[in-house]
Amino acid sequence: MKSATRDIKIYFFLLGIFSFLFLSCKEESNPVTQVPDTSYEMKVTFAPIEVKSTDGKINLLYSVEIPNFEKDGYTLKDFQVLNAANNTRLCSISDTGKYLLIHPPTTASIPEQLYAYPMFGHATYRFSIGLVLDPAQVPQKIKHRLVLLKDAKETTIEAAETAVSKEPVTIVGAPFKGNGFVSECTTAFLPFNHHPTYQLTYKGMTRVAERYCVDWLKVDSAGNLFHGDKTICSNWYVYGQNIYAATAGEVVFVQDGMPDQSPVGTVNDVNLYNGTGNSVTIMTGVSYAVYGHMIANSITVKLGEYVNKGQLIGRVGNSGNSNAPHLHFGIHSEFPYYISEGLPYYIDSFEKAGLLVNPNLEGGTLVLLPSPSARTNELMENCGVYNFK
Question: Quick one: CA dihedral 77, 79, 85, 90, positive or negative?
Fold first, then answer.
């Protein structure tokens, strides 16, 4: 996990590392020529689920894996996402406007004993697809088309159709009380979200653990994230804020005693297992809620304790793999979080106060709504500013 300030600094760096390719919607004009000389199965490993964010958009953030075709001498020419009903192209490598995040394969999974934060541990080609659509644009079914090249010959393979899920999204409470909280790195628009780039292959299975996670900060009325010297943790407005349990459940993990990374901008002595810093994981019964980067000795709950929704569990700090004070929060399919799938979730009740535009290392321009808008059951959007009761 990276802090929000570091996120801003490395957006374009991430573009280069992960081959972000922006894609636009347009009609497919070329007919499909199906060449049956390969059998690369395109497997949807995490289904597209309709997730509504506070900007009114529908987010579809999901994953497709394909065996390593490069070992057979093929190269990738195109990967396309189509509306199965009419073959309208939703995104592809050759377009602009949306994106694909492409992870070429490595030769082996991350070994269990590796003490490093993984970003490249995948044994298959993985396409992390993120679509941000108006509600009327959301297809009922999606299909995928793979175009490969070998010896100057083109091979096109189409996968079976995949239904867009309308399953209920988990609803949780807010982890804060008060005004001016900023959500970063949450919705499917990847140029402003590094979380889905962290993918770990563990025992032959690749997961996107931080899909739909959020980094929470706090701004003042001018849109600043801190006052005075930004290298001092306590000068950040989010630092020391009380964190409340977003769900009821049993505490299944507590990590404490790690110092804040200081001065702000320093990141030392972190690995896969302590990246969340001082943190709490609460099992809700069907999923796991993770709260990361707290102040040492601020955690108020114990392993095995049952906590109620809204109960105080700790305070925001800068411990672990954190480049500035923030709360990292996410809902996960399994424990520990780093070998799980990140799950979508809605916050049950809040006010949208505005948006932090033109974000930078200092904060951004705070654009407030004429009056805060009461909302229920939505995903926070990137750089949205919210009030919680």
Answer: negative
**Cα–Cα distance measured from residue 15 to residue 102, given in angstroms and rounded to the nearest whole number:** 11
* C-alpha pair distances (Å), 155 with each of 21, 38, 70, 82, 363: 22, 8, 13, 18, 48
Residues 6+ away with beta carbon under 8 Å from 71? none
Q: How far apart are CA 254 and CA 62, in angstroms?
A: 30
Distances (CA, A) of 359 to 57, 111, 295, 355: 21, 37, 26, 10
Burial of 303 by CB count in 10 Å (0-12 exposed, 13-18 middle, 19+ buried)? Answer: exposed
* 86 Cβ contact list (under 8 Å, min separation 6): none
The β-bridge relationship of strands 199-202 and 26-27 is: unpaired
Sign of the dihedral through C-alpha 342, 344, 349, 353: positive
SS3 (DSSP) at 18: helix
Exposure of 13 by Cβ count < 10 A (0-12 exposed, 13-18 middle, 19+ buried)? exposed
- What value does the CA radius of gyration of the chain take, rounded to a whole number of Å? 21
pLDDT tens string 355-389: 999 887 788 999 999 999 999 999 999 999 999 99
- What is the rounded average pLDDT for all residues in the chain? 83
Q: Which domains does the chain have, with CATH numbers?
A: 4-163 (no CATH), 170-388 (2.70.70.10)
Tokens of 379: 């995903």
Where are the alpha helices (H) located in the chain, listed in sequence order? 4-9, 11-18
Judging by beta carbons within 10 Å of its beta carbon (0-12, 13-18, 19+), is residue 272 exposed, middle or buried? middle
Looking at the DSSP assignment, which residues form a beta bridge with residue 331? 289, 343
- Give the pLDDT confidence of 223-262 residue by residue, as tens digits: 999 999 999 999 999 999 999 999 999 999 999 999 999 9
Query: Taking the CB of residue 312, how many other CB atoms lie within 10 A of it?
Result: 15
Distances (CA, A) of 77 to 37, 154, 179, 365: 16, 8, 48, 40
